[in-house]
Input
Amino acid sequence: MILTGKAFKFGDDINTDYIISGKYKFKTLDMKELAKHVMEDLDPHFYEKINEGDMIVAGSNFGCGSSREQAPLAIKHAGISCVLALSFARIFYRNAINTGLPVVECDTSQIEEGDLLEVNLGEGTVYNKTKKINIAVSPLPDVMIKILADGGLIKHFQKHGDYNF
Amino acid sequence: MGKTIAEKIFSTHCGKEAEAGDLVVADLDFIMAQDGTAPLAINSFNEMGGKRAFDPSRVALVIDHSAPSPNEGVSSLHKLMREFAADKEVILYDIGDGVCHQLLPEQGHVASGDLVIGADSHTCTYGALNAFSTGVGSTDLAAAMISGKLWFKVPETIKYFCQGSWPGGVFSKDLILRIIGDTGADGATYLASEFSGDAISALEIEERFTISNMVIEMGAKAGLMEFDEKVERWLKSRTGRPPQAVFADDDAVYLDVRKYDVSNLEPQVACPHTVDNVSPLKDVEGLPIQQAFLGTCTNGRLIDLKIAAAILGGKKVSPAVRFIVAPASREVYLEAMQQGILKALVEAGAAVVTPGCGPCVGTHNGVPSDGEVVLSTANRNFKGRMGNSNAFIYLASPATVAASALEGKITDPRPYFA
Ligand code: SF4
Output
């Protein structure tokens, strides 16, 4: 799968309260509604700015904090196609894969706000079209590739009835 | 080659000798979700085609984050949990029972050697009982409810060796804040942590929970402690199950060993807006506060309430400060009532709220206003955490929070323990 989109840049330690504030996550399971508040405390107009397919690009420890799966889901439902970061917090990383949000660990210092990116998930490559550079990607663990290939953990269980690694 | 506590617990739960770096599918002893994560987990469970929980006596749903419900949206999520629990016959803790991370150990659901997951990042709390427990998301939790299993990457371990004798007015909260400040918010990501040394053995179990609770704030998967007679005694009064004590081998391989001496530790404060932004209290001493909060899965236990009551007893908190207290559980509430602790706190000016998370996560019970400073015993001070991104949250020990509530500004509690 090849994803193309514009980069929206954030810093280090973007926590799950920033991604979707606790005050919203308790209210509803309507992800479209939650999506409107994604990144709101960092940029109140973020949701209005993004177009379908755009990407979040961040520094280290993206998604630290709570285990709320509303975080990757709100990002996904806002139309973000992929999150690229220098590193991810553990629970967020699992949740993203489980809910089918592609996450890529790579050197994001080579990406600037507004750069056009092309991410090839199958091959595990990132190409910065604006800067015309290839960026090396850390490979996903095998288990995660299998879950993503099935379209997330729910589909994996629907298909196999149990873990199938 | 010797093994760490984490490697040993995974070995007993995946049917083979596991080492750091191995990917394993492991059997779980207990599974928990709370009202912020259970509704999504229930949806995933249904979508996965789940019919029943693998063992209903090993699954608990806890309504603690937004309890009692502040609005109809939350009410319908709570209803979903109650109906699911009744239908699948899993354990339900309803409003007023307490915070999940107090309830699981208190109600005897966790014993040494166990492997436990919870759909809440502070599930790492039970490491203090020599169990491996860690937080996951709702979909992992749903898969676990169906299968009784979860896949893990067996983590490497950082060991924190803590020695020395505790100065009066300095507590386990100050130590873990210092450690997080030194390690950094992502310094232990994908890793387990182990805590040992005479400064840890000197702590009561309740004080140990505070340390294990906060390891996620440096990214760690688990905050493991050794088995000793305090753990044994504690478990005996809580659970019928015999503990499976786990000891790290002498030649266990650690990623790193870091030494701490608590003898010269001072009270610490985490400053806005990250938990690893830790300073010695003296750097922020005198900063006026408008709200003080004593509670949460970090520091809402009986010992915490007792320490605060000892400082506040017979006095009144500053008129400039709103003082909110959330006992960690119904049991803590009752015990604090019987011992006169609650009376002392209420007389001092405390507003006591329902046992549970209280205002910790910003859904109700004390959302600060713009520009206000909150001093809290919780584990997180992220921007917006308590429901207002224009407020400033500082984290400290119950003693520091109590002394500061009295003075109306951040205050060193050590004079009360001299
Ligand atoms: S008290 Fe706070 S940190 Fe603990 S479980 Fe509740 S919301 Fe989470």
